[in-house]
């Protein structure tokens, strides 16, 4: 079942259980999912024109119209958490984000919201990442860059979670017709790497410092709730050291690569190889795999 159907069924079960304003994702919900899963597919595209490379990767999956239908509302969540310029590789590259938004608009989206729950001051992070200006350069009123409203986080209870059983999640993401994740591949001082799964930290509220206690399991748990329809992993340049903030171009390696897919575990497993690591070297990848969020065995992943 897709993300929207998953959340609709969760909401229906919550009402039946009398949960009120608390969205509950009970164990029965996972029993509704099909037992057999298709082979994970990762689309890779390489080149120096990063907007075109992004489009090529998505096209290899069948194009954006496979993911976004006319009249739908889309939330795009790039990593733009840091007050850093694009060459420092702390945020998703603006060319990658702009292309994703443009393709959503071309597919007929009613509205495309671009947002992130930042770590640095949001006004500075949005501006200096280059993402805000890149999206606005499309000059399409359907494309908006929004600051996160702290009042719009809602509690979600996840019974299958091992650690993060109840937390605050951004309502706009939960209610969107489509949700697209655009992380940048980089080193992280606490989780070792930050990729697709870890980028969901920018979609939760509350005191996020609490999530750093048992971080790897918490990342896996939040990905039970947050299920993007599409992941576009920005590997145009990667941050090898001193992440997640970076700040020195000497820590950056240019890869000229964009990967896209629907399986965040598979994408993260592959991205480990760009850093000379194995998927088993990153705890949250193993834990997300154990929760059934995707495939971490590279031999079982199809690349196109």
UniProtKB/TrEMBL annotation:
It is found in: Cell envelope. Keywords: Iron, Iron-sulfur, Metal-binding. GO terms for molecular function: iron-sulfur cluster binding. Residues 74-272 form the DUF362 domain. Pfam families: DUF362 (PF04015). GO terms for cellular component: cell envelope. It comes from the Bacteria. Its main location: other. Heterodimer of a large and a small subunit. NCBIfam families: TAT_signal_seq. This is DUF362 domain-containing protein.
């Amino acid at each position: 079942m897709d993300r929207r159907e998953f959340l609709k069924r969760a909401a229906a079960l919550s009402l039946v259980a009398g949960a009120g304003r608390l969205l509950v994702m009970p164990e029965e919900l996972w029993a509704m999912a099909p037992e057999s899963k298709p082979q994970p597919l990762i689309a890779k595209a390489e080149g120096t024109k990063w907007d075109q490379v992004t489009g090529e990767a998505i096209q290899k999956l069948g194009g954006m119209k496979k993911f976004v239908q006319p009249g739908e509302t889309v939330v795009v969540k790039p990593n733009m958490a840091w007050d850093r310029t694009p060459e420092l590789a702390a945020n998703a590259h603006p060319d990658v984000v702009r292309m994703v938004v443009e393709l959503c608009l071309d597919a007929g989206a009613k509205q495309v919201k671009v947002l992130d729950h930042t770590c640095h001051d949001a006004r500075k992070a949005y501006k200096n990442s280059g993402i805000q200006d890149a999206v606005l350069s499309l000059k399409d009123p359907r494309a908006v860059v929004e600051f996160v409203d702290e009042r719009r986080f809602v509690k979600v209870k996840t019974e299958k979670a091992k650690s993060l059983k109840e937390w605050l999640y951004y309502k706009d993401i939960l209610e969107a017709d489509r949700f697209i994740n655009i992380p940048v591949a980089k080193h992280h001082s606490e989780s070792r790497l930050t990729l697709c799964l870890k980028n969901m930290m920018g979609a939760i509220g509350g005191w996020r410092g609490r999530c750093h206690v048992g971080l790897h399991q918490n990342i896996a748990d939040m990905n039970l709730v947050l299920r993007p329809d599409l992941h576009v992993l920005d590997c145009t340049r990667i941050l090898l050291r001193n992440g997640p903030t970076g700040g020195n171009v000497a820590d950056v390696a240019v890869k000229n690569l964009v990967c896209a897919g629907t399986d965040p575990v598979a994408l993260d497993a592959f991205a480990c190889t760009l850093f000379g690591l194995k998927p088993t070297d990153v705890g949250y990848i193993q834990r997300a795999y154990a929760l059934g969020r995707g495939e971490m065995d590279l031999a079982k992943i199809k690349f196109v």
